[in-house]
Amino acid sequence: IRFILIQNRAGKTRLAKWYMQFDDDEKQKLIEEVHAVVTVRDAKHTNFVEFRNFKIIYRRYAGLYFCICVDVTDNNLAYLEAIHNFVEVLNEYFHNVCELDLVFNFYKVYTVVDEMFLAGEIRETSQTKVLKQLLMLQSLE
Amino acid sequence: MIQTEASCCRIIFGMGKGKSKEAEIKRINKELANIRSKFKGDKALDGYSKKKYVCKLLFIFLLGHDIDFGHMEAVNLLSSNRYTEKQIGYLFISVLVNSNSELIRLINNAIKNDLASRNPTFMGLALHCIANVGSREMAEAFAGEIPKILVAGDTMDSVKQSAALCLLRLYRTSPDLVPMGDWTSRVVHLLNDQHLGVVTAATSLITTLAQKNPEEFKTSVSLAVSRLSRIVTSASTDLQDYTYYFVPAPWLSVKLLRLLQCYPPPEDPAVRGRLTECLETILNKAQEPPKSKKVQHSNAKNAVLFEAISLIIHHDSEPNLLVRACNQLGQFLQHRETNLRYLALESMCTLASSEFSHEAVKTHIETVINALKTERDVSVRQRAVDLLYAMCDRSNAQQIVAEMLNYLETADYSIREEIVLKVAILAEKYAVDYTWYVDTILNLIRIAGDYVSEEVWYRVIQIVINRDDVQGYAAKTVFEALQAPACHENLVKVGGYILGEFGNLIAGDPRSSPLIQFNLLHSKFHLCSVPTRALLLSTYIKFVNLFPEIKTTIQDVLRSDSQLKNADVELQQRAVEYLRLSTIASTDILATVLEEMPPFPERESSILAKLKKKKGPGTVTDLEEIKKERSSDMNGSAEPASVNASAVSTPSPSADLLGLGAAPLTNSAPPPSSSGSLLVDVFSDSASAVAPLAPGSDDNFASPDLASSEVVSEEPADTVHDADELFHKFVCKNNGVLFENQLLQIGLKSEFRQNLGRMFIFYGNKTSTQFLNFTPTVICSDDLQPSLNLQTKPVDPTVDGGAQVQQVVNIECVSDFMEAPILNIQFRYGGTFQNLSVKLPITLNKFFQPTEMSSQDFFQRWKQLSNPKQEVQNIFKAKHPMDAEITKAKIIGFGSALLEEVDPNPANFVGAGIIHTKTTQIGCLLRLEPNLQAQMYRLTLRTSKEAVSQRLCELLSEQF
């Protein structure tokens, strides 16, 4: 994984996680490009878009686009379902997650991401295990 | 925490009320000022408040505002014993990475403490921070420590997971700092771990390591196979937490299958059998009824299936599995999910290149053509085009090309050029009947003329010229195509060229009489751009030769003010020269000068090269090519199989040539005479005049060089054939004819690598009589001798009539040099003694190695070489038309790298390279600034050595 972006339809970024070195201007450019590429696609389109030398795997949940940028040789469906797995965890953790949960609890969202994805790789896929760990951490707060 | 959230809310909602952007910024600034004063205040903040304000800063940053303070407070939080404070501290560091060296030391210190804390939560935070930042400083500090944590017996599972991926990140950013060691074998055994999360993380690490060190991780193959086998044979509930919508551990399965793609099929028959069973099970499961209707179920299942198919294709050894994979993908081609249709097309593309499954793929042609017509998503249609291209062979080429042409009429602009290239390649490659080829290309120009690049129409001309069976047809067809009231300029170019060469073949028909041909072409003249008009003028002068009866008509046109006084220098010059030529030259001379073009040497299609460039190497599916790549992969050989293609035709074993230099080949650098530049080479002559006006195709030994009509009976002894023109031609290329008179032709082929080189000299006896006492000698002057070491072997003193002998010169560049060695040849021919000398084109630039660098690096080095003695500049008049593409090809041919997007002025050319000599290496930078208006160039060379700058500048100035 090169980066993960969660954006709303207006293009506001709700989460950006970078696994490659980019400078700030480059990040801003990528964010805008991804938004432009993804939002024009409709339900009849695939969930994959070629993007520079990579590809974006994305899925839309209500007003939010969850986008993962991966290498062209990576497994599309595996990352597509990784997004869904991640969303189900968020949903469970925040009890029906909504956009504002991601905004206000940004530090928790980062924790969830790090539990499930690390160094650009899938770290843990078991929802039970991830939630158990998150609850344990929450009890320390 | 609640309070933090509340205050965050206050910022946000405050902002919501703020009517304008300014109000928002004002509010943020107020908040920042408040936090700043808290941090600066006399009263030391407690951990809780510190955390609260750092968290606010982070929030403001994430809203998109710059934050330039708070780093120190964040670092302080790292040493807190409370999880929340530590977590916010680490998050701040991860998100706002700052390479402030003072802080890095403090951060590393805190991480070190946490790693040693034995508290799994703190260890996790520290490891995640390293994995997120991944800086070199962190690699230096922790690359030794993390493997220990990873393999220690008492490490918690979740910490192991983090440690594995943390190590992976450090290995990616600084592989040199991660030492291989005892831990590697223990990491491989993590594939057996009880905890599937640990296996998931470890598999990623092992895959990356195995790609770089396949030998060391070879044992992972059998472990991965048995792990995979246990997963795919498990019942859907066995793996509990790791079952996702009834699919057992889909992500782990995918990762294991990817790991196996780092290796060839297992040698051990037991392991191999077990793997085949796994793959069969996966294929079988695809046929079972789904356990759930949810898309998550089918996606997870198919993720594994596609990865298994990738592995089957990678192994390319089990025909049975390949055909089954193909059938499965065939089913997906008609699936209602767009995702699956897309992926099936993509995956089938690679299957098409396997000899085992090529035929099976072909059976789906109708479905794929249908996809081209009906898919709504352009990216799916694109894949369909790719697949058609990949499955094309002689049996279906006509159908596929026709469908692609059909599609081209409505295709999206974004993919038109690529389709044009593909059609052009397929039409050429599978043409049995060249009339079909000509029709196809003309259709291409008609349908998508704007997307037909120069390479495509150059190529059709090459082919027509080389095949005399199609020339009449081509002339007739272009003539007809030109009748269209509005035709594309590219058609005018092709038409002009072909009629100029072969118009006579259709002139017998009164409907296409010479005058009609001429009037037809000339009716387009005024609508065309300058280069096309220049080409048409050349066609006209060729007509003067082909059709003497319309000579006066053409002369009238050339004589008109719009030609003779044309504002464009090139057009004016052509008009003047051609008019003069047609007036004074006798028919014989005209016939010689305007001779039909000689055949072009056969070479790789430049269109293919262009497509490869467009798609990146490896994506152009050419059966043989993939085979070649794959076999070299398996042998683990690092040398690209296609280097030094020219070496194949020389008698010496190519391995020897490869062995000349010890350094690995830079396979990204184009060989000095890539097909693209050669093409430009050929056409650089014909662009300024129809070819035989210029010396013919001088890089082809075999071509009958009729154009050289010079009559030289006996050379005065001992004059060096200066032939400077020819000598300079060799500065930017390595092969071609060096010298030719009525008796003898001398051809060269040479290769250079670093400070070594080898030159093959071919002496061809053009007469039918023997040459006796044939003695070529290579002479270095006293000045040259210490710098250039040349070794030759004597050749057979007798050269039979019509025969060719060859001589090898081994070259070593000891230090930089100015002069060129002299090749002296003495022999007896029919009783007379012949003695001649030519300069041998071994020039300093042959020992260039191109160097790629960024704009920043280039100008930094440029400034470093600012000593006036290091710079040599030359301002000179252009001797050839100023064409950017030709100039680029020449700079690359010269040996330096051509750096794109370095010079702020895109019209300028910038190059860099290193001259290798035995004693030293000299870095060279060059910059060429064309001034189109004045038809002048300014060339600047900067190297660390004055003499080198001087010599390179001299050599290169002669080229433009």
From TrEMBL, chain A:
One of its GO terms (cellular component) is AP-2 adaptor complex. Signal peptide: none annotated. It is found in: Cell membrane; Membrane, Coated pit. GO terms for biological process: clathrin-dependent endocytosis; intracellular protein transport. Residues 1-140 form the AP complex mu/sigma subunit domain. InterPro entries: AP_complex_ssu (IPR016635), AP_mu_sigma_su (IPR022775), APS2 (IPR027156), Clathrin_sm-chain_CS (IPR000804), Longin-like_dom_sf (IPR011012). Coiled coil: none annotated. It is a peripheral membrane protein. GO terms for molecular function: clathrin adaptor activity. Keywords: Cell membrane, Coated pit, Endocytosis, Membrane, Protein transport, Transport. The keyword Protein transport applies. Belongs to the adaptor complexes small subunit family. Adaptor protein complex 2 (AP-2) is a heterotetramer composed of two large adaptins (alpha-type subunit AP2A1 or AP2A2 and beta-type subunit AP2B1), a medium adaptin (mu-type subunit AP2M1) and a small adaptin (sigma-type subunit AP2S1). Interacts with CCDC32; the interaction is direct and mediates association of CCDC32 with adaptor protein complex 2 (AP-2). This is AP complex subunit sigma. It comes from Anser cygnoides.
From TrEMBL, chain B:
Residues 728-841 form the Clathrin adaptor alpha/beta/gamma-adaptin appendage Ig-like subdomain domain. The gene is AP2A2. Signal peptide: none annotated. Adaptor protein complex 2 (AP-2) is a heterotetramer composed of two large adaptins (alpha-type subunit AP2A1 or AP2A2 and beta-type subunit AP2B1), a medium adaptin (mu-type subunit AP2M1) and a small adaptin (sigma-type subunit AP2S1). GO terms for molecular function: clathrin adaptor activity. Its main location: membrane. Keywords: Cell membrane, Coated pit, Endocytosis, Membrane, Protein transport, Transport. This is AP-2 complex subunit alpha. It is a peripheral membrane protein. The keyword Transport applies. A 1,2-diacyl-sn-glycero-3-phospho-(1D-myo-inositol-3,4,5-trisphosphate) binds at residues 38, 48, 52-56. It comes from Anser cygnoides (Swan goose).
